[in-house]
Amino acid sequence: MNFVIAALALIIERRLGYPQQLVSSIGHPVMWFGKLIDFMERGVDKRERTPRQRRDAGIFTLAVLLLVALAVTLLVQQVTRSVPQGWILEVLLATPFLAQKELGRAVHAVADALQSSLAEGREAVSEIVGRDPQALDEAGVSRAAIETLAESTSDGVIAPLFWLLVLGLPGIVLYKAINTADSMIGHLNERYRHYGWAAAKLDDLVNWIPARLTLVLVTMACFFVPHASPGMAWTTARRDARKHASPNSGWPEAAFAGALGFSLGGPRSYDGEIVDLPAFGTGKRALVYSDILRALVLYRMTLNVTLALTAAIAILWLIAA
């Protein structure tokens, strides 16, 4: 039944997204997670504590977050499964945790802005990346948008879908709670190196399979995208993915780079400091706004392949049932 729920959730979210009216009135589940994480951080992360004490505080914060998310989700699931056709509500509840529509919209906005001017492109890309936008030229803005698209295809779409398929509604909610904690506190800077250790490590663990599954799906999508190379997507990812400091982020980035004949990654500027990062792929590096649009075509075809496979398994299950 998880495949049926997942297939319908993919269709609904891709078509409708998460309505802005709901964001304005009740917020988004990720915002709720963020408020709890922020509340816990203010209460337990004291700077005068030892590194071990701060690590323990981070573990406690993560445990509270996951227990609250699990308890609420199990209660909701108990209600949905006790009423006729309650699985339909599970479909609707799963959709906010899939970021297909918003991710595509945000990246497309960068391409549109960059087509108008570099200044507008920098402003648009600053909404989706943490690097210094003023340090980016047109190629830098384009690479930043495509790198974000590739990485978020994995942790914003494929990973939550994977955990929905494996563990149902609790799986996708717990995944998103972990991913939100990692994005807020799972950093290697002085502030979060110890406190965010547990969130970062757990996020690496739950994204391990989805990141590599994304490579498979991107490779499959290449067969349906003009001028995209499935062979280079696979070869580049197998060769370059492990260069990334993250055990997971390199796989989708290298897959997109190889598929489209780009070179992604490389040095970046954060808070005025240049960070030397590895490059993925050996192709075109002087990217322009139209290359972002090419990457979006590959992204959408990857979503199509993902939906087709999910729906096919759901239909087979319904026939067998």
TrEMBL record:
<feature type="transmembrane region" description="Helical">
    <location>
        <begin position="297"/>
        <end position="320"/>
    </location>
</feature>
<protein>
    <recommendedName>
        <fullName>Cobalamin biosynthesis protein CobD</fullName>
    </recommendedName>
</protein>
<comment type="similarity">
    <text>Belongs to the CobD/CbiB family.</text>
</comment>
<feature type="transmembrane region" description="Helical">
    <location>
        <begin position="157"/>
        <end position="178"/>
    </location>
</feature>
<dbReference type="InterPro" id="IPR004485">
    <property type="entry name" value="Cobalamin_biosynth_CobD/CbiB"/>
</dbReference>
<keyword id="KW-1003">Cell membrane</keyword>
<dbReference type="GO" id="GO:0048472">
    <property type="term" value="F:threonine-phosphate decarboxylase activity"/>
</dbReference>
<keyword id="KW-0472">Membrane</keyword>
<dbReference type="GO" id="GO:0015420">
    <property type="term" value="F:ABC-type vitamin B12 transporter activity"/>
</dbReference>
<keyword id="KW-0169">Cobalamin biosynthesis</keyword>
<dbReference type="GO" id="GO:0005886">
    <property type="term" value="C:plasma membrane"/>
</dbReference>
<dbReference type="Pfam" id="PF03186">
    <property type="entry name" value="CobD_Cbib"/>
</dbReference>
<comment type="function">
    <text>Converts cobyric acid to cobinamide by the addition of aminopropanol on the F carboxylic group.</text>
</comment>
<feature type="transmembrane region" description="Helical">
    <location>
        <begin position="213"/>
        <end position="234"/>
    </location>
</feature>
<comment type="pathway">
    <text>Cofactor biosynthesis; adenosylcobalamin biosynthesis.</text>
</comment>
<feature type="transmembrane region" description="Helical">
    <location>
        <begin position="57"/>
        <end position="76"/>
    </location>
</feature>
<keyword id="KW-0812">Transmembrane</keyword>
<dbReference type="GO" id="GO:0009236">
    <property type="term" value="P:cobalamin biosynthetic process"/>
</dbReference>
<keyword id="KW-1133">Transmembrane helix</keyword>
